[in-house]
Request: fold
Amino acid sequence: MSSDSSVPFVLSDPETPPESNRNPQVRFKTEGGRLLLILPPEAESTGSNGPQASNWPDMWQQMQLRLNASERFWQPHTEVCLVAQDRLLDARQLQALADALSEAGLLLARVHTTRRQTAVAAAAAGYSVEQFSSPASLVPARIAQAAPMADALYLETTIRSGVDVRHPGTVVLMGDVNPGGSIVADGDILIWGRLRGLAHAGAGGKTDCVIMALQMEPTQLRIGDFLARAPEPPPGLQHPEVAYVSGQGIRITRAADFSRSQLLSKIN
Reply:
């Protein structure tokens, strides 16, 4: 980031009236050393005919104007965090945003959203995802402390190296977590596949959460404030396992030996 962008700024088209007099606008902003692309919330997007839940053409035009007016503020290959708020974005729209940013020398790397559908589409496309239960703040820790446990997030994808998924509830993954990938959840983490990256359950401080995987080969396990590394599995022995907190810290046991009543209570 160049010195021109070291102070938070909001870029606006000089021909566009202030936001207070018009609909909320697409904005670029720096915050905490990150470049944010902030989309207006659907709930606040209104027009002469009332609420406009999905006005993609107008939003797309706004973003193009901001990109054309703001190129001098960033260096090539700067990573962008898309703050989608409660916008429902599908894979096609996310790809269009990524392509437009790429043409301006920017790289879409992370998606913040309060919509599970958007989080699923972003994770499937290979972006790091932070799903919040409330749009009140962009700071994950602050939201995790203030918000209740969210509904479970179900994903069917592979979490590749460099991708992390964050969710204020339980995460259920149908797929693998590769080395260098991570899942951070305030609830449980259930992986129908191989866990070879990082998994942090109970990220908000809960120690009664579990991490379950068909093959448990993580680089790191965390439950609440407890930290552990899984031992090397004996050759030829592969079976579903559960990590949980006991009086001795994090323990790993065969899923078949884990209390059935405990497991059912977690899933339900």
